[in-house]
C-alpha cells in the first residue's frame, strides 16, 4: 500500500493484490482461530481506510471477508466452536460459565476492589491469568483500576496515531498504525468479553496476560513503533538544524 499511494484507486494494479492477500491470509487463519482472523481483518480494513482506499472497495473487501469467513468456518476446525459461542452470547436463558464467573468477579470488586492478591474468583474462573485477567483486575483493584487499565490502552492508541500523523513516510506511518491497531483492538476485545459486550473469544490482554511469546512479540511491535517515531524525530531535528543555520547566515 505504501508503494501504491500514487495510484491507490487503481483497482487492478493496486487493490486486487491487497484485497486478495487480506482475504486469503485471514481465511487461512480463520480455519483454526476465528477470533484472531477477525481481529486481523479489522486491522487490515482500518489500514486500507487510512491508506485512502475508496469506501466502495472497502465495502467489497468486507463482503469478500464475510464470504471467505463462512467458507473457512465450514471447513475449518473451529467453526462450530465459534458458532456455539455466538449462540451462547445471544441466548437470554443461560450464561456461559466463564462469563458468569467473570460477572461475579466484577460485581464483588465494587469501586475500590478487594485489594491486591485478595481475589476469590481466581479459584473458580477459568484462565484467570490470561483470558479473564481483566476480571481479576477489577475484583482486586475495583472499577477505578479497571478504568485506569483501559485509559492506558487508549493512551497507547493516541500515541500510536500521533506517530502516524507525524510520519513523513507512508511505509513507517502505515506500519505504526497497523501495529498500534493490532495491540489496542485485541485489548478492547478482551475487555469487552470480560464485561459482557461480546462472546467469549480466548483473546488475551496484551502486556498483562501471562505468556512469554505474546509479551515478546508485543514488545517487538512497540519497539518498531518507537523506531518509526525516533526516525521521524531525527529527520525533524535535521531539517530544523538546517533552517536555523540558514537563518543565522541570513
Number of helices: 8
- The shape, in one word, is globular
Number of domains: 2
Give the uncertain stretches in residue-range form.
none
Could you give the count of β-strands? 0
Summarize model confidence as the mean pLDDT.
82
SSE class: mainly alpha
* Fraction of residues in β-strands: under 5%
H/E element sequence: HHHHHHHH
Radius of gyration equals: 22 Å
Helical fraction: over 70%
List the helices and strands and how they pair.
Blueprint: H1 11-30, H2 34-50, H3 55-75, H4 79-90, H5 97-109, H6 133-166, H7 170-194, H8 212-249
Describe the model:
By secondary structure, the protein is mostly helical. It folds into 2 domains: 1-94; 95-250, no CATH class. It is 72% helix and 0% strand. Helix 6 packs antiparallel against helix 7 (170-194). 34% of the residues are buried. The mean pLDDT is 82.
